Structure formats: C-alpha cells, structure tokens
Amino acid sequence: MIEKTETKSAIRSTNKRRKILVAAEREFACNGFAGARMKTIAEAAGLDKATIYHYFGSKEELYNTVLEDVLNSFVALTSKGFDHDTDPGDELAEFLDVVLDFLNEHRSFALILRQEFSGPGVARSSFPEQALRPLVDQVRRYIDDSVLKGEMRRIDSEHVLYSIYEILFGYFTMNNSIASLFFEEKPYSKHVLKRRKEHIAEVIRRLLVPEEMMDGIR
Length: 218
Prior knowledge:
76% helix, single chain
C-alpha cells in the first residue's frame, strides 16, 4: 500500500514538473528571458509560484532546464547518422524533414535558440553551442565527404550549413506580420508545411547535387 502511494506521488510530481516546463517554454519563447514572468508560467501550468520554486530554485534554473531538455531531445532525434549508400540529396532532404517536424512540434525552441544565438544569450554556460556543435560537424563532414566523392557539387559547406540553418529556423521564428507578406494561408498549417518540406527538398537537391545526377533522382 505504501509503495502504491509513493508511486502515485512520484507520478504526480513528474506531471507537475512537465507542466511547468511546457508552460515555461512557451513563456520564454514569447517574451524572452527578461520579459518572462514566473506568475504567468504558474498560471499556465495550473499551479502556484511556490510550487514552481519547489521544483526550480530560480528563473535562471528553470530557463536553463527548458533549454537543455529541448536541446537534448533535438540532438537525440537528429544524431542518427547518415547512410553513405543512399543518394546524398535524398539523405539530407530526409534529415531536414525530421528537423522540420521537430521544429513544428517545438516552435518555442526555434524562438528561444534564436534569442540565444542572436544576442548575448541567457544560458549560464556554453551548453547550446556544446550540444549542437557535434551535430553541425557531423553534417559538415557528410557534405565534405560527398563533395570529395563527386556526389555533391563543389560547395562551401560552412556557408551551406548556415544557409540551411536560416531556412529552417527562420521559418519558425516569423511573426504574423512577416508571415503575411509571403503566405496567403497560415504558414504552419498542415498543407503549407507539406509544401514547405517539398520546397526545401527540391532546393537542397538543386543546390547540392551535380546537374548530371539530377535526372536520376527526380
């Protein structure tokens, strides 16, 4: 009986912590670290401020936990490696498709990461860079190897990677005014997101794959 009670208590505690993190992710994304309010996070989570401080000692600790949790999920999902027996254009398109799905499910992550990298940042360590650098280096090596094998055009992998970053993250950090300039429909609707994936896949192939190989993969 005691074990069952302890198990239920642990489940409730885990659920509360998860509710706090979900609410905090949205609040930090919408208002930045400085503008985020613990009271707003508590209300969105259906809890009181005292409960938040029971799980997280400060706003900084909560922010860093949000950032680390989402970064770890992102890296775990996207670090599966590349199949060198597959056409590199298709391989990269599939990789970016996974990234797009993740960003669509975690739009707050794109906004928070943009805040971290476009200013002095809030994280009290270099964790965002440390977490993402192995992934970026992995993709860069894959591109460079494919270029050496003649499977990709001779391109500057550094600039290509940065361009891809902007294509992916920029899409999920648009405000409504910017979105209305380019899209007649809501940019994150299922239909538009499907077209976005198809467009990015085509751009990647035309950018990276030699012209003489294009006919074979269309």
